[in-house]
Structures are given as C-alpha cells and as structure tokens.
Amino acid sequence: MSDVDTGLRNEEGIAAVIGVLRQRFGDQVQTGETLRAQHAHTTTYIAGQLPDAVIFPNSTDEIKTIVRACADHRVPVIPFGTGSSLEGHVNAPLGGISIDMARLDKVLEVNAEDLDCTVEPGVTREQLNTHLRDTGLFFPIDPGANASIGGMTATRASGTNAVRYGTMRENVMAVTAVTAAGEEIRTARRARKSSAGYDLTRLFVGSEGTLGVLTSVTLKLQGIPQAISGGVCPFPSVEAACNAVIMTIQMGIPVARIELLDALQMKACNAYSNLSNPESPSLFLEFHGTEAGVAEQASLFAEIAAECGGGEFLWTTNPERRTELWKARHNAYWASLQLRPGAKGLSTDVCVPISRLAECVVETQEDIAASGLIAPIVGHAGDGNFHVLVLIDTDIPAEVAAAEAFVGRLNTRALAMDGTCTGEHGIGQGKRRYLPLEMGEGVSVMRQIKQALDPMNIMNPGKIFSFND
Amino acid sequence: MSDVDTGLRNEEGIAAVIGVLRQRFGDQVQTGETLRAQHAHTTTYIAGQLPDAVIFPNSTDEIKTIVRACADHRVPVIPFGTGSSLEGHVNAPLGGISIDMARLDKVLEVNAEDLDCTVEPGVTREQLNTHLRDTGLFFPIDPGANASIGGMTATRASGTNAVRYGTMRENVMAVTAVTAAGEEIRTARRARKSSAGYDLTRLFVGSEGTLGVLTSVTLKLQGIPQAISGGVCPFPSVEAACNAVIMTIQMGIPVARIELLDALQMKACNAYSNLSNPESPSLFLEFHGTEAGVAEQASLFAEIAAECGGGEFLWTTNPERRTELWKARHNAYWASLQLRPGAKGLSTDVCVPISRLAECVVETQEDIAASGLIAPIVGHAGDGNFHVLVLIDTDIPAEVAAAEAFVGRLNTRALAMDGTCTGEHGIGQGKRRYLPLEMGEGVSVMRQIKQALDPMNIMNPGKIFSFND
What we know:
Chains A, B: Belongs to the FAD-binding oxidoreductase/transferase type 4 family. 2 copies of one chain form a homodimer. The first copy, chain A, is α+β, with helices and mostly antiparallel strands.
C-alpha cells in the first residue's frame, strides 16, 4: 500500500501491557507468532501486520479490564471476529493487543414475539441461524463468509438479500460496547424505533472497531417465509439486465435477491460446476412470501425480463430445483479462482445508484480488458453494488501495481457516478485514500468524533483514517 | 417544566449579530414580537421562549453566512421548519436567531429510476407528494402534520406507515448540513448502501438541530402501490388486539399500517364523526401491493383476527369505502379534543417491544383512570409505539402537575419494559430528563459528540441536553 503508516509503535507500553495482562489472564494471552500471524490474516493482498499478543476474553468485564490496561499504557486494541474482513481491518500496523471474540459465542436471548435477539460478538451468522432453527425465525444478512455478528456489525456488512432485508445498518437494533475509556455503554433499548437522542447504534455500526469494542449486538429477525421461488434469466447485455432490475424495483416487487453475473463469471461457473447456462450476463433471483405471492412475483419478473429482451426465465418453487438453478451463483467465488489457478483473488466492491449500474459495469469491463487483467464481476444488482475479483499473482509487482491502479480507477468511476467507494466491505486500510474523495469535509467531522471518543487513538488505529493525513 | 434553563443569554453578542445580519440581509431579518412568538410556538404546554430575530435565508450560502456570524458572536442558532414539533424543539431558551426555512422550498431533483429525490429543508411532505404526483412514486413517511422534510429529518419522525416503510432513519439517504463552524458537509452519496466510514447521515437524522443546520435532504421514494386494501376490526380487549398485531408481524404480512385505538378513542370518534363503530379497542389496517396481494393479506389478517377473538373484520379494496372505514382513525385527533372542549391536548409518546405493548397500554389506562385524567390512546401498534393525548386546562396548575407526573410514570413504565421515552416525537426540551434514564452512560457519549462538533454550544442549545446536568 502506498499509505505509509507513520504512526509509532509504543514498545515500552506494549511490553508493559502484555505483562499486566499475562499476570491477570494467564494463558488467555498468547504471543506465539503463528497465532499472531493468523490474527493479522487478511483476505486481500494487503500485507499482514501482526499484533503483539492475542487475548481470548470470557466476558464483558474481562474486555473492560483489557481495554483499561491498554488505555493506561496507550497500546492499540484490535477487535477480532473470524478474520473474514477484506480491507485489512484486523491488521495491527502499530502492534498492540488483538481481542479474539471466539469465546464470546453465546446467543444471550431470543425474543420471538418481538422478532429480535441479542448475541455476543463472537457468534457467527450460521451459528445464529442454527440456534434459531426451531423458532420459525431467521437472521437474513449473508455476506458470504461465515462471519461473526460483531465483525459484520463493525463493517456494516450486507450481501445478497440486502435488497429485501437491508444491511447491518437496518438490522442492528442496539449494541453494547466498551469505549476507549473502558466504560460499557448500551446504544439503544429494544423498541423498534426511537427518537431519543443521537443514533449511537448507527454510529457504532460500520465504525470498524475505531470507537470501541462491541460486547453484544441486538438484531432484528425475520419470519422464515412460507414459500420461496427462485430462478435465473440470461440477457443480451449488461444494460438489458440492469433495465430489468430497475423496472423490478420500481414496480415494488419485493425481490429477496437479484444478482448479476457478467459473461466471464457465467463462463467460469459453467466450467467449474459443469453447467450449460448461456454465457451472457444473467440475473439470479429469489422471491420470499406466500405460495401465491412468490408465484405472482416470479410471473411479474418474467414479463419484465421479456420486455427487456431477456432470454427464458427459468424459475421454480421446488427447493431442489431452485438449488440447481442457483448453483452457478452459489459457486461463483470458487469458479472465479479457477479462471487462473494459483492466482490470488483481490476482491473489491463499489456501489452506485442503480440508474448508473450498467454504465459502471460496462466501463469497468472495458477497463479490465484494456488493463490485461482477468476479473469477473458479480453484483448485488438491486442495490447497485458489485464486486470485481481481480486474479493476480501477488509475487509479480507489476501485476499488483496494475490491480491497484485498476481499483483506483474503479473507485474514481463510482464516485463520479454519485456512488460510494465501498458498498459493503468497509474502508479498513485498503480504501482509506478514497474516503476523502468520497466524503470531502465529512471526513473532518468523522475525525472530530474519533478524536472525541478515542483521544489517544488506541481503538484499531490506522483503520478508516490514515495516520499521516 | 422543572428543567430550569440556567444557561445565560449573551445580550451583547445577540445585539451585535442582529446588527450584522440586518446590514447584510435587510428585511430578511425580522424582530417583531408576533413573528418571534410564532417561531417559539410549540404544540405542547411547554411555554414559548422567543428568539431575538427570525431570518429567512434564500440559499445555503446565506445559511453559512448566518451561522458564521452567530459563531463569531456566540449566539444560538435555532432551525425552524413549520413549527409542528411537539417537545419544544423550536424554543429559544437563551434567545438567538431562528432560521426559518420557508423560502428553501424547492425539490432539487427527482431520480425516478433510482427511487430517490433531493429537497431543500423547507419542502413539506404534502408539497413533495404533490410534486411527485406524475412520477408514480411517493414519499411514505406521514407524521400527521404537514411537517417540513428538514424538521422531520431533525426529529427522526415517522407515523402510521413506519411499520412497512420505516422511519426517517431508514428513508434519509444523505443530508447536507452547515456545521457549527459554518462549513457545509454532505453525509453520503446516492448509493443505496455504503460501508464508507461513520454513518454521519444517521447521526444528523434525529439530532434536532444540535449538530448543524440541514440544507438539503436526499430521500428514498416508493412506487405507488398498484392496489390498497384497508379495514377495521374490533377486539374484546387491548390484549386481544395486540396478540393479533404480533401474529401479523410474525407471519411476515407486509402490513402498511396497523393502528390501535382504545375504547375511549373509539367512543370519541363515534361522537365526533357520527359513526357507529363498536366502542371497544380496534385495529385499523391498510395493505399495499398487487390486487391479488392485498386481498390475500386482508384474508390472512381476517383469519388471525378471528383466532384472537376479534369481531368482524370489515375490509375493502374500494377507495371510497376504505376512506369510510378509516374515517374514525383519520379524525381521531380532532375527535379527542371534543372529549373536553376548550382543553389543550398534551401529546406524548413512548415505544416498547411489541410483546409488551398490551401490558404497557393497559397499565397506562389504569394510571389515567387513577389520576382522574381524560386521555385517549392511539398506537402505531406494529412498531409498539403509542400516543396518549392528555386533555388538560393549562390554566389550572394542579392539572398541569398531574399531567406531568403522569408523563413521568408513562416514561418510567416504558423504560422498565426495555422501551424508549419517545418513539417519534424526539427529546427537545420536554423529555430531556428521561434521556439519561434511558441511555445511561450513552448520554455522555452523545455529549462528547456534541462538544466536539459544536464546542460553543450555539446549535439549538438546551435541546436533547439540559444546560445544568
């Protein structure tokens, strides 16, 4: 990265705090290099930056004790869920203490009548849905990885069904968090809505660990739909597919998922899963509702697709057949990697108003071709959000440079279309340089808040904001 | 109110700033007492506190100039929309300059394909919907009054259809605002979702003018539903009605409105509108969707109502007949006032998890009876939010005291049920004392943010936070 981290390691403080924590927590504190390296693992090409120790707390009180010790010695605190974030969020550029939430994995309460639950931050989304299995409820947000709820909250995650159910922004009702001063706060009660003061919940959602350590998250839940229908439809062009998306949204069809795969991605999927889908831009759809409702929704979409020049819309309410139709989408990531075996996938995302989605995707495809990169595109089209997986050999500096330059142009393009440099991955380290381009003076306001709540900059330093701006 | 405002008026600064503004803005600055009194008007029994001048800016640049002048002289700035807020939000306890947004009434852009629009803060919701009439789109949030979009944003307003479409929290995509330093910021782009940094949009939504002056608001819009069905159903008790609400939400029926009127309110409505509805707790419902969908939703609700012991559910898709069925709900406010002609209505609201709604309403009815008050209840039941309109003679101190004591118990009751002291009215001056009870240490975090962004406390001082805590 060209964002040089010029912050200084506080060697003395780090040594002191490890001593204090060891004395208090014994072998809950680990300093072995392998474990530390796992906690600096990122799924990007951003180099790992190891924390000096990893600690496994068992309770909020223990987190308070850890944060207070780190505050006393001005040592960085890096919260860690499952490490599936994509922009270097768990790196420790100045070292410090990684707080691994693995033991904080309890579902604290489920209020079925209120359609909500409260979980510890280390609970993963799959674990939560397993826990909910007998309640008739589910937690819809699905970013792909089996991420922790704490991590999903911290990065404002979303995924395929955000078009229907919203992102973590809409689905987190409250959090408890330990602030930089070592105090626990609760950001809201369990009421569905409130006009009581500043929206601290939304401030913590997406704050990437820079304002405090999450200790519990209260989530909205959804009733499992009575029926689900799903299908796939090819289109002659990205524009035609995007027009169908726009009409679907405008008509108010409450589509649960509407995913765009470009021609290269479809080709990769056919090869990987031995399928024979048309190798043209395609939409994968899912509808949730009553039996009659999901059939009606699918029929309405079929009309729209035909009007937009789409090919045959294959759809079904049969679960096995639906899984079959969605197979290409389900395996898209692994299929992509096989386009260039041995390469590393650099996953990046942007999000634009849906009226600009086709233009943004097409220009990006042209850019990919002109750059000589291999990079299939998958989009959460209903939100105007899409991912590019750039397949590079990270040992070849020219490839890394080409990929970086491409990401820069992609972000500039999205911003020029009134979009954002990240729809769901977050800023972390990887997108810090684009945030000021997107937010202008707004970044100063963010910095003022950060400074007010974490004056010593011990909370996940070097994320969202660079040290040297 | 027993929250004494011990902040001091800055007489010298106020005189100076009025001089500066007069010189720059001429008769856009008004100091007549009648006009100033109108700008301190509140719809509660909270006494008016007049600003020293009212100014009518024509542009964002003019707002910047005004705020900078006020900052230079440390003079309070009070943004004013239509004055329909309910908790003293537009009062000027330390005097200062009321900025009336009446001339900032332009719809700046409508992006029909993206289902969004951007408006100046003085645009009212009815004006916006009139403007949208030919687009097939509408803006759903309806707090009752024809409030300004700026004011609705500042108070995090909602209303009857929040259960389907969310509150201002979910429907504001971005704002521009002039900060206390006189800089304009934009909190987000037009992408449907973003993970880029702190959620400044949500921080400004509900900040009640205490962090800056809104200069534009970007809103989500909805497609006008193809069909609407609506109806009314009586229940033998509040519990039975609330059980029907819970089952409706749990089943995922996408009800657009589900309003609870208690027996006293139904009685008032019958008398006022010459109706013959059963005088028992009743639910008023509305469903939005396709022709087939709204019929299906109404049928499903009819089954639920029967299961919960409800009486006949009268419903229709005919617009005139629907208006007829909803007449009681539409006229509820005016009907209430006729329960005690000449009395003033003190409107207060709380919101609890819906599993506690019946208990909270019933205890509140018992409290009303024990207090000798006349106070019908109307609830946005799908959100667990309800209003009590306490009818008092504000010239009788004992009545005011009884009403205040009742409001105190109502808030304590809602908080004990993990609810909030205000679902949609905001804190303003009227609910400041309850915010610390609800938020605990969270209020300190709010204060730190306020202090960081408005160190001189010139932005609508005395709202959300008391001077003397």
